């Protein structure tokens, strides 16, 4: 990955977003389908979505901070543009999910998976309105995946603080990394788990040259060991002890794996080439749309098939349907929101906090 790439949109990071979004889709499809009954609750194939969210969070910490490491932060243009980029697609996704909820009769079905039946409750407009703020603390009505967007909004609001702390501690990456991982592992509060994950991405943004130099100094065996260790850590939520407050050892190791895979995307030429393949890159450019619509589509297909569908038939229908709907959503909703966001930047200030195509890991920019 070149320095020029790092100054703007990074294709390999698009690909990484796409892989993470695909894992969320697979996780939810398995949780909604009858296959869930035959899979151990801690199996990676049913709980890998939480590991993918950690990747999203470190990506946001990296791509939003990287362009302003040493430059000015034009907050007057950043905040309105960022709000448009995040909220317009979210509102459309809530409306879409609400329409599917009514049109495909989401309801409790005896024998269906608990995750699917969680979507069968009678829902009110007031709940959808609270969801649309992205600041509520639980009980997401139509799109349960929005819980992670709440943390994206919090991070977006606090971005200047992340940048300032990153600048002040740029010579202490190991110390700050250990502190962030320790906070995640304390298992005391979600407010101690999720904000530090974003900061791990911020730390990497300040250490790109050092990370490249370290990778270049490794032997082939050393590089292979790093790749294997990263892969193992990325599955930590499946095998490491879990805490009671969303933290604990499993969460800490998963966050370490997330920053490891992001670092590989930045320093490894082989991984960069894989992530920039056309199909992987397409998934990345549509990752925000995929993330927003996948749950409603997956749940609707499961209910249409009776709530206890044949696993193979269900996956054969649900996953392609999700990809098609995401493409339509991208063209009709997300891409226009990008255009409005860029107009807001130009309206409020001539210079930006970030290049036009650099935004969060979830919104595909």
Roughly what is the average pLDDT, rounded to an integer? 87
Give the strand tally: 0
Bin the strand percentage: under 5%
Judged by helices, strands and strand pairing, the structural class is mainly alpha
Cα radius of gyration in angstroms: 20 Å
- Helicity, in percent? over 70%
Terminal-residue CA separation: 17 Å
- The low-confidence runs, each spanning 5 or more residues with pLDDT under 50, are 351-361
Quick one: overall form?
globular
**H and E order:** HHHHHHHHHHHHHHHHHH
Number of helical elements: 18
Give a structural overview:
- With 365 residues, the protein is mostly helical.
- The protein has one domain (3-348).
- The chain has helices at 3-6, 11-32, 44-63, 75-103, 114-117, 125-133, 146-157, 159-168, 173-185, 190-205, 208-217, 220-234, 236-239, 249-267, 269-275, 278-285, 287-304, 311-348.
Secondary-structure map:
Elements: H1 3-6, H2 11-32, H3 44-63, H4 75-103, H5 114-117, H6 125-133, H7 146-157, H8 159-168, H9 173-185, H10 190-205, H11 208-217, H12 220-234, H13 236-239, H14 249-267, H15 269-275, H16 278-285, H17 287-304, H18 311-348
Helix pairs in contact: 2-3, 2-15, 2-16, 2-17, 2-18, 3-7, 3-10, 3-14, 4-6, 4-7, 4-17, 4-18, 9-10, 9-14, 10-14, 12-14, 14-15, 17-18
Describe the structure concisely.
This protein has 365 residues and is mainly alpha-helical. It has one domain.
Notable traits:
single chain; 365 residues; mainly alpha; 71% helix; 0% strand; globular
């Amino acid at each position: 990955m070149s320095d020029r790439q790092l100054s703007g949109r990074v294709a390999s990071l698009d690909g990484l977003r796409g892989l993470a979004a695909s894992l969320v889709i697979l996780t939810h499809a398995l949780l909604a389908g009858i296959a869930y009954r035959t899979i151990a609750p801690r199996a990676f194939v049913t709980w890998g979505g939480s590991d993918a969210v950690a990747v999203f969070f470190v990506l946001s910490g990296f791509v939003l901070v990287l362009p302003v490491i040493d430059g000015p932060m034009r907050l007057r243009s950043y905040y309105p543009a960022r709000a448009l980029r995040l909220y317009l697609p979210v509102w459309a996704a809530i409306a879409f999910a609400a329409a599917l909820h009514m049109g495909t009769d989401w309801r409790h079905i005896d024998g269906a998976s608990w995750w699917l039946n969680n979507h069968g409750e009678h829902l009110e407009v007031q709940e959808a309105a609270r969801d649309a703020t992205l600041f509520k603390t639980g009980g997401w009505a139509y799109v349960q995946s929005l819980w992670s967007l709440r943390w994206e909004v919090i991070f977006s609001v606090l971005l200047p603080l992340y940048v300032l702390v990153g600048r002040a501690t740029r010579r202490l990456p190991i110390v700050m990394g250990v502190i962030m991982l320790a906070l995640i592992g304390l298992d005391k509060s979600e407010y101690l788990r999720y904000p530090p994950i974003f900061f791990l991405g911020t730390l990497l943004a300040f250490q790109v040259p050092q990370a490249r130099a370290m990778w270049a100094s490794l032997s082939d065996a050393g590089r292979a060991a790093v790749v294997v260790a990263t892969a193992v850590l990325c599955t930590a939520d499946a095998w490491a002890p879990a805490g009671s407050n969303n933290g604990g050892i499993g969460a800490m190791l998963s966050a370490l794996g997330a920053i490891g895979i992001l670092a590989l995307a930045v320093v490894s030429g082989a991984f960069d080439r894989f992530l920039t393949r056309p199909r992987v890159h397409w998934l990345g450019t549509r990752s925000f749309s995929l993330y927003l619509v996948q749950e409603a589509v997956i749940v609707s297909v499961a209910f249409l098939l009776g709530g206890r569908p044949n696993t193979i038939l269900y996956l054969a229908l649900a996953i392609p349907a999700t990809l098609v709907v995401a493409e339509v959503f991208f063209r009709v909703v997300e891409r226009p929101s990008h255009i409005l966001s860029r107009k807001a930047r130009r309206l409020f200030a001539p210079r930006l906090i970030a290049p036009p195509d650099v935004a969060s890991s979830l919104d595909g920019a």
